[in-house]
Amino acid sequence: MAKVIEPSAAEKTLDLREMTDARVSLGRHGAGLPTRAQLSFLLDHARAREAVWTSVDRGLLTDRLNRLGLSVVKVDSMATDRSIYVRRPDLGRMLSVESAERLKQAGSAKGYDVAIVVADGLSSSAVDLNAVPLIEALMPKLAAFNLSTAPIVLASQARVALGDPTGEALGTRLTIVLVGERPGLSAADSLGAYITYGPKSGNPDSGRNCVSNIRDGGLPIREAAEIIAALVKDMVKTRVSGVALKAALAKLPSSNV
C-alpha cells in the first residue's frame, strides 16, 4: 500500500490554501493525487465546461433588467451557434446585419453617452450571477456624471470587441462590455468589464481598459462599480481609453484631475 505523505510542520504553519483559490498544497498519495483532490478537479472541470456551453437565459435577464426600470435591446453576433462561436472568435466580434440595423434604430437621434453591453462570452454562469447586480450598482454612478445610457444591449455569441460596432451603431461616446470570462479550474463565474471610449469597428484591444474577476470570492460588485465609474469619469475628461489613458490624465491641468 502506498504511503500517504503528510505536510511538514512548516507547511502546516503556512497554509497556502488559505491565501488563494488556486490548486496548491494538494498533497499526494504515492505518485498520484489524493482522491479528494482528484474528485475536486473533475467537479471544477465539469463546472468550467458547463459555463462555456450553457446558454444565457436572455428572457430572464430581460425581466430582471425591466424590473430595474431599464429597457433592453437583443442582438446577435455573426456566429450563429455555440460551436461556431467557440471555433471562430472573429465572427463573435461582428454584429449580424439585422442586429446592426436594430441598434441604429434604437440610437437614432437619441444622443446617448454610454452603451452597456451584456455579452455571454465564455461563461454563462458569470453573466447570470453578476451582470444585473453590477448594472444596478453602476447606473446611479453614471447618472451622477450626467451621462445618458442607451437601452441595455443583450448580445448572444459575443466577444469583447462586439462592443465596438454596437457603440458605433448606437452613436455612443463610450461602451462598457460586461462579458463572461474564460472559466478556470478555480472560478467558472468570473465577469469582466471592458470600457472603450470612442467605439468603432477595428479598435485595437490596447484601446480598452479592463476590470476583471468580478464575482463572489473575487472583486466585489460594489468595488467593481466604483472602479468602472472612476475609469468612465477619467475617459470623459480625456476622451481617451486604454493604454494611453494614464498619460492623457497626466497632461490635464491639476484642477481637472
The CATH topology name reads: Rossmann fold
CATH superfamily: Ethanolamine ammonia-lyase light chain (EutC)
User: Strand pairing plus helix content: what structural class?
Assistant: alpha/beta
User: Helix amount, in percent?
Assistant: 40-55%
Please state the overall shape, judged from the principal axes of the Cα atoms: globular
Average pLDDT: 87
Described by strand count, sense and barrel closure, the largest sheet is:
6 strands, mixed
Strand content: 15-25%
Annotation field: number of helices: 9
| CATH class group | Alpha Beta
Q: How big is the Rg?
A: 21 Å
Order of helices and strands: EHEHHEHHEHEHEEEHH
Distance between the termini: 67 Å
Q: Which stretches of 5+ consecutive residues score pLDDT under 50?
A: none
Trace the largest sheet across and list its strands: 3-5-4-6-7-8
Tally of DSSP β-strands:
8
Q: Architecture, according to CATH?
A: 3-Layer(aba) Sandwich
Q: How many structural domains? A: 1
